[in-house]
């Protein structure tokens, strides 16, 4: 990790990995082979671990992710993914229902309120101006 973390930030960036791969592709491949991970899988892992799209991954995240990829998926891993998928689908369905049913109504109500306020301001200004010219 320290060899890849060129700027010693405590995080590996995508640029740093690309630099090390270009400089010593066989050495990096040997490290991943020792963990039974292909270089392609390591790239995918890096992208998965970079949840905030910062293009950096900390040491603990990287090692933990690499170790979890070793061997076959456990039944508990698959169950967890299935559960997370169901939860996400329910949230998306709720969001879709809102946009289909309630979003348009909410926008219409907000526009109506804004127009009412605008009309009241215009009427108030007209009344004040007519009093001024009398």
What Rg do the Cα atoms give?
29 Å
Helical coverage, percent range:
over 70%
* Unreliable residue stretches: none
Largest sheet descriptor: 2 strands, antiparallel
Oligomer: single chain
- Structural class estimated from helices and strands: mainly alpha
Strand fraction: under 5%
| Order of strands, widest sheet | 1-2
Distance between the termini: 83 Å
Number of strands: 2
Provide a count of the helices: 6
Structure commentary:
The chain is mainly alpha-helical and 134 residues long. Helix content is 74%, strand content 4%. It has 6 helices and 2 strands, in the order E-H-H-H-E-H-H-H. A two-stranded antiparallel ribbon has the order 1-2. Helix 1 (14-23) crosses helix 2 (25-34) and helix 3 crosses helix 4 (59-68). The protein is elongated, with a radius of gyration of 29 Å. The mean pLDDT is 80.
Features:
single chain; 134 residues; mainly alpha; 6 helices; 4% strand; elongated
What topology emerges from the helices and strands here?
Blueprint lengths: L10 E3 H10 L1 H10 L4 H11 L6 E3 H10 L6 H27 L1 H31 L1
Antiparallel strand pairs: 1-2
Write a brief caption for the model.
With 134 residues, the chain is mainly alpha-helical.
């Amino acid at each position: 990790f320290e060899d890849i973390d060129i700027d010693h930030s405590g995080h590996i960036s995508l640029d740093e990995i690309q630099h090390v791969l270009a400089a010593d592709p066989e050495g990096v491949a040997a490290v991943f082979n020792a963990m039974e991970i292909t270089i392609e899988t390591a790239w995918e892992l890096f992208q998965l671990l970079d949840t905030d799209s910062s293009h950096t991954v900390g040491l603990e995240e990287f090692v933990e992710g690499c170790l979890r990829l070793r061997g076959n998926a456990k039944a508990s891993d698959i169950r967890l993914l299935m559960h997370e998928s169901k939860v996400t689908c329910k949230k998306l369905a709720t969001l879709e229902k809102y946009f289909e049913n309630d979003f348009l109504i909410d926008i219409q109500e907000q526009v109506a309120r804004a127009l009412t306020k605008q009309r009241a301001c215009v009427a108030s200004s007209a009344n004040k101006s007519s009093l001024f010219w009398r």
